[in-house]
Automatic annotation (TrEMBL):
Gene3D superfamilies recorded: Neutral Protease Domain 2, tricorn interacting facor f3 domain
Record organism: Nocardioides szechwanensis
Coiled-coil intervals: none
Alphabetical keyword list: Hydrolase, Metal-binding, Metalloprotease, Protease, Zinc
Residue ranges constituting the Aminopeptidase N-like N-terminal domain according to the UniProt record: 165-236
Essential cofactor(s): Zn(2+)
InterPro entries linked: Aminopeptidase_N-like_N, Aminopeptidase_N-like_N_sf, Peptidase_M1, Peptidase_M1_aminopeptidases, Peptidase_M1_dom, Peptidase_M4/M1_CTD_sf
GO aspect biological process, one term: proteolysis
Record's keyword annotation contains Magnesium: no
UniProt name for this protein: Aminopeptidase N
EC number: 3.4.11.2
Length: 485
């Protein structure tokens, strides 16, 4: 993610935790779903209401591993109403009498392997499902959830993530977005293939992740289907619907597809389209630095709406209208395809790995295109922030849930990468960067994993260096040991 312009990067976020009531008490007392089915006398455990992230305890869920989402949504622009159903293909990682999904929309029905299943809402964020027959470890099963609501009226723990007008809508946000438009196991640790079908009036265009499968028009409505074959974290899935102009092509063998809303003012429209067309060329440059691009196609979407940030949605980032500095932001979001999308955080406390690396690649692009060297940039920013105690006070490896998008996470994160580069040398540093994205491709990794690989590649202990840059809460000393001077 990169906010639009140079303003503060803070986001309205908060940790939350809600105790999980007993399953049978919920089914019988709340009465939100069918209750005729009974569980075994000694039911298997109920999967946890979170995956174990300390910042967001209700993100994701215990006991399940989603393999695939098939999302079928219809959106009505004037009423702002979204209705639909999603089929999830899920594998149990433990015996389950019940399990949770993350969803904020009101639920109409739930089935498991075709059988109507009892369900309840322990809180507004969680949907708890009790299959008629308990599920065994390793069993793969299908869940279908039907829902309807107005996502623009839904807020959760300080987040109101739906961005829409009477003519356009974009489902984009971080670290949470899926729960506003489909049920999910909403944490980067559980990536899955996502297949999205969106129905809107036929005069509207729909863009999403992956490849366009087809568009079917019927009675004034059009259903557009997109499929991404590479698994992704749920928050990286998106759709944009509205008066978009769509272009596609191939650059050096890499397919690209871009879209710009025709509601963007004329002067900004042409500039935005030119900028989006650069996506494939900039991706090939990033490949020259980091290794093979991890996805099948690339592109970008410029919306006329103002979400207040650009976001690295997998394979096709979404941007607001950008003026000066737009190319830098595009480099940042495309760098996230390696750092954040392919190699995702283990926990949200590891966010500096995403944002620091993407910001560092901005610096690297400037360095290789006539700008200052990375070390000149590092020394200059160090001097600029020399007396800014707030800038140095944040622990990069543990910023807290309310500050995961703080300026320091981006800029000090990038400073850490450049200081490490200066300390261990050019060849080992770039070998480290390429090893990191290659070894962890398609998976998750933590700050501790990065530190261990850095020491392995450098062939020297780096504990003191990382203590200063990641865990320190004061300005690093200007020493060679710290990659400065």
């Amino acid at each position: 993610m990169q906010p639009d312009g140079s303003g503060a990067r803070g986001r309205r976020l908060s940790a939350y935790a809600v105790a999980l009531p007993l399953l049978l008490a919920l089914v019988t007392s709340i009465g939100l779903g069918p209750t005729s089915a009974s569980l075994a006398d000694e039911p298997a455990p109920v999967g946890g209401s979170g995956i174990g992230d300390g910042y967001f305890p209700l993100d994701g869920n215990g006991g399940i591993d989603v393999q695939r989402y098939e999302v079928h949504d219809r959106y009505e622009f004037l009423s702002r109403r979204l209705s639909g159903w999603t089929r999830l293909t899920v594998t149990a990682t433990e015996p389950l009498a019940a399990f949770n999904l993350d969803l904020l929309l009101p639920v109409r029905s739930v089935s498991v392997d075709g059988a109507e299943a009892p369900w309840s809402r322990p809180n507004r964020h969680e949907l708890q499902i009790a299959p008629v027959t308990p599920i065994a470890t390793g069993q793969t099963f299908d869940v279908v959830v039907e829902y309807v609501g107005r996502p623009g009226r839904i807020g959760w723990r300080g987040e109101s993530n739906w961005v829409a007008s009477d003519h356009e809508v974009v489902a984009v946000n971080q670290p949470h977005m899926a729960a506003w438009w489909f049920p999910s196991n909403d944490h980067p640790r559980d990536k899955a293939v996502i297949d999205v079908s969106i129905t809107v009036p036929r005069r509207k265009s729909v863009v999403s992740n992956g490849e366009l499968v087809g568009r079917v028009v019927h009675d004034g409505l059009a259903t557009t289907r997109w499929r991404s074959e590479q698994p992704m974290a749920p928050y990286l899935a998106f759709f944009a619907a509205g008066p978009f102009q769509v272009e596609r092509g191939t650059h050096q063998g890499l397919p690209w597809l871009v879209a710009v809303s025709r509601s963007v003012p004329v002067g900004d429209f042409e500039r935005s389209l030119r900028l989006m067309r650069r996506s494939a060329r900039l991706t090939r440059w990033l490949e020259s630095q980091l290794g093979t691009y991890p996805f099948g196609s690339v592109g970008g979407v410029t919306t006329s709406l103002n979400p207040g940030f650009a976001l690295e949605n997998q394979g096709r980032p979404v941007y607001p209208v950008m003026a000066g500095g737009g190319r830098t932001i595009v480099v940042h979001e495309l760098a996230h395809q390696w750092f954040g999308n392919s190699v995702s955080v283990q926990d949200w406390s590891d966010i500096w790995l995403n944002e620091g690396a993407a910001t560092f690649m901005e610096v690297r692009h400037a360095e290789t295109h006539g700008g200052p060297s990375g070390q000149q940039w590092l020394e200059s920013l160090y001097d600029e922030c020399f007396h800014d105690t707030q800038f140095w006070r944040l622990r990069l490896d543990d910023p807290g849930p309310g500050r995961i998008f703080d300026t320091a996470v981006y800029e000090r994160g990038a400073m850490t990468f450049q200081a490490l580069r200066h300390k261990i040398g050019e060849e080992p540093f770039w070998r480290l960067m390429r090893r990191w994205v290659a070894d962890n491709r398609g998976g998750n990794a933590s700050t501790a994993d990065f530190e261990a690989l850095a020491e392995q590649v450098a062939g020297t202990p780096l504990d003191e260096f990382f203590d200063v840059w990641l865990r320190g809460t004061t300005r690093p000393g200007r020493t060679a040991a710290n990659g400065l001077g």
